Each structure stands twice: as structure tokens, then as C-alpha cells.
Amino acid sequence: MFSHNLQEKELSTINISDMSLESCQAFLNYLYGIIRHEEFLIHRLALLRAADKYDISDLRDACHESLLEDIDTKNVLERLQYASLYQLMKLKMSCIRYLVKFGKIYEIRDDFNTFLHNADRDLIAEVFHEVLDAWKGF
């Protein structure tokens, strides 16, 4: 941006409107190799978006691995949607397995119902395919 005749070069600034100031600071800290683990954990979803937007594969991989570590009923549906959006297959399958194989769909019925109304149809079909596979043995 600074090497071409763009607005950023003229103003010597870059406006990053899709990140909070704190997430942007975490992103810069990651790029400079000074991010603290707690800061990474707090901002990892925003960092995943930034990694995708700016094509930073090592940050994308770090976020992916980190998001696999603490899936629970409070975050599984959000992570499932992020996994689908950013094509994080390992995370997507872990979330689906958590919902289906561990029976967590029943614990989050209301949230799952909202998810069904808002999520991508292909993702919903994948979840139901796994549900049907799980029921095959009964």
C-alpha cells in the first residue's frame, strides 16, 4: 500500500476498520513476535480473520490449533461457523463430533435452534449427516 500511489501512501496511514484497537494491537504484537499467550487467546478469532485477510498462514495455523483445544458448549457453534467459513476442516470435524458423538446438541437446544435458522445450509446438512450416521447404530 505504501509503495503504490494509494491513499495510504499519501496519508502515511492504514485504516483497519474491521478490527478493534485491541485486536489490531494483538495482530501487530504477533507480527513482531511479542504477543503474550493470554493476549493471543483473547483475540484468536479476530487474529484468524486477520490471518485469512492478509494471508498469514502461520497465524492461521496457530489460531486453528488453539481453537481445537477448548471446545465447549458455550463456543462450539461459533467455532463451527468459523471453521466452515475459513475452511478449517479439523476444527469443523471436532465441533461436529463434540455436538453429535458427545450428545451436546441436547444441552444447547435453544442455541442450536438459532444456529439452524442462521447457518449456511451446507454446514447444516453436514451436521445432520453426522447425526444420521450416529443414529444408524440404534
TrEMBL record:
- Tell me where in or outside the cell this protein is found: Endomembrane system
Pathway per the UniProt entry: Protein modification; protein ubiquitination
BTB domain residues: 1-69
Q: Which domain of life is it from?
A: Eukaryota
How does the entry describe its membrane topology?
Answer: Peripheral membrane protein
Q: What are the annotated GO cellular component locations?
A: endomembrane system
Query: What name goes with this protein?
Result: Kelch-like protein 25/37
What is the protein's species of origin? Vigna unguiculata (Cowpea)
